[in-house]
Each structure stands twice: as structure tokens, then as C-alpha cells.
Amino acid sequence: MPTNLPPEYFEAEKRYRAATSPIEKIATLEELIGTIPKHKGTDKLRADFRRRLSKLKSSSQTKKGTSRRDIVFHIDREGAGQVVVIGPTNVGKSSLVAALTNATPEIADFPHTTWQPTPGMMPFENIQIQLIDTPPLSRDYVEPELFELIKRADLALLLVDLQTDPMQQLDETIAILEERRIVPRHWQDGYPDQPRWFFVPCLVLANKYDDETADEDFEIFCQLVEGDWPLLPVSTTTGRNLERLKPKIFQQLEIVRVYSKAPGKEPDFTSPFIMKKGETVEVFAGKVHQDFVERLKSARVWGQVGFDGQMVRRDHVLHDGDVVELHL
Predict the structure, then answer these.
(1) Structure pTM?
(2) Domain endpoint, select from 24, 42, 65
(3) Could you tell me if 245 and 275 lie in one domain?
(4) Residue ranges making up the domain that contains 79
(5) What would the pLDDT profile of 192-230 be if each residue is shown by its tens digit?
(6) 219 and 98 share a domain?
(7) Cα(152)–Cα(286) distance, rounded to whole angstroms?
(8) Tens digit of pLDDT for each residue in 276-311?
């Protein structure tokens, strides 16, 4: 059913998406809701925004005792995963987030344009992944709250400038993180018995890979990088490899999309359940409804099984694209 939204709605939506602080988000969201006409076609949209408003107000109440700086760096997780874009100044973090999401971070040629994190949502097939632009990692000064944001993230994109000593930039970024007990997850085996350390999955992006003339630069960078780093060259200027980046991020998040199906009905492919690789039918049942975990008797699966509709037990591991019909 068409929503027939007025022009005022789209203007208010821009202000809402540009808002950064909880107070600004609450004010702009209230304004946004007020622009939506009341009819059947907008019922779902208005309900969704009212839920967001309620969540924002509740979060604001519980954080009244915290400082504004703490609130700015506390970004609620949205979508299928939370990905932080980190690195030194002027490597293109803001440009990357702007190119891939609906966010509008300030972009300029001079350093230190970004002073606080800016989230945006990146569409990938039938899901959304949250990307967060962050202030630069620098020896001069870094807000301590930025490191807490990185620790909570599902994935860190380490951005370097392919044309300006990328190896030094990567080494400096890793050194600053390590000083705060944050280490790339593929190095975890080198830190045995370190319960206070945080191991974050990382993907290195070499920006300014604008055209074929940069191929040799990237090859040299790959030869200089030690260890088994996941690497991808991209260009936020020409868009080169940005479409390759989206599935790469999905792969590095190590998640799968699983779809629910009611007996006798078609599966719902519009809203997949996001699960970690290796999780089972039992975990899926709990995501559908917590009560289903104890009531679950069996399940039928379509997808990566021996045959469509195969009956499986609760410990059956699910894969990306599987369709599950729970039997209680």
C-alpha cells in the first residue's frame, strides 16, 4: 500500500539522519513522526519510528549520569553487524562511509575533520550493516571512549592511504591499538592466557586505488605486509572495488542469514534472522521466540541439507540461506 509521504517528511528525515546526539535524535524523530500522514499505508512506518523514539528516550534516561562525550561514543548496534572504520587522519574514512551508507560525515582535505563517530547503514543484498566513521587514531590525542567503541565492534576496517606510506600507517594503527590491549583476532594465538585483551576481527583497506596505475603500488604493499592479513584495495574517489567490499565485509563478519517458514506457508525472505556461523537450530528457535527453545521437538530445513525439507535435530548447524520450519 502506498505511503504517499509529503515533501516535509523527506526534509525531516534528512535532519534525523544527520543528528548525532541523543537529544538531537529525539527532537528530529518527533518532528519526523509529525510529518507522516495517518492512514493504513503508513501504520507500519509510524509504529517503527515510535518504537525508535521510545528506545531513544529510555536510553537517554538511563544515561543521564554519563557525560555527553560518553553518549557520543556509545552507538547502539543496528543491522546485521557493527563495523568501525579506523585509521590515521586523511586516509578517507569519512569518504568511505559516505560512499557506502546514508550517513553524511564532514569530508575535507585538511586533517581532523571528524571529531566524533558517525554511523550509517550499508545495504548488502537483503540486509543492512552498520558502518561507523571515527576520529583519527593519532599519537597526539585519541578520546579513550573511541577504544571502547572499537572493542565492542564486530569488525574493524583498518584504512590506509596506498599513495602515502601505507605500511607505516598500518604499523602505527596496530601499535596504538596494542597499547590499549586491542589486537587483530588472527593474532590471538600469539597472546595466550590474556583474559584482559580484546581480539577484534580486522580487514585492511588500501584506499586511493583509483585506477590500473595503482596496481603495482598495491602489489608492493602486499609484499611488505607480514602475516596472513585480509587485504582489499579500494577507491572512495572512483568507487573502484567498493562493490567487492560489501560481500567481503559480510564474509569477515562470519554471519549467516536464516529464514523462517510456518508449516504450510511460504518462507519469509524479507527479514532474515542473523546468526553467527556454526550456530544451530536450537539457537535459531530462541531467536524466533525464547519459549520455543524448550518446546522445540524437531525442525525441517531447506537449503544446505541432503534434501529439501529434511528433518533435523536441534543441534543441526545452519548455513547462509537456510529456511527453517520449527515443530513444537
Answers:
(1) 0.74
(2) 65
(3) no
(4) 71-253
(5) 877 788 999 999 999 999 999 999 999 999 999 987 899
(6) yes
(7) 23
(8) 999 999 999 998 888 888 888 889 999 999 999 999
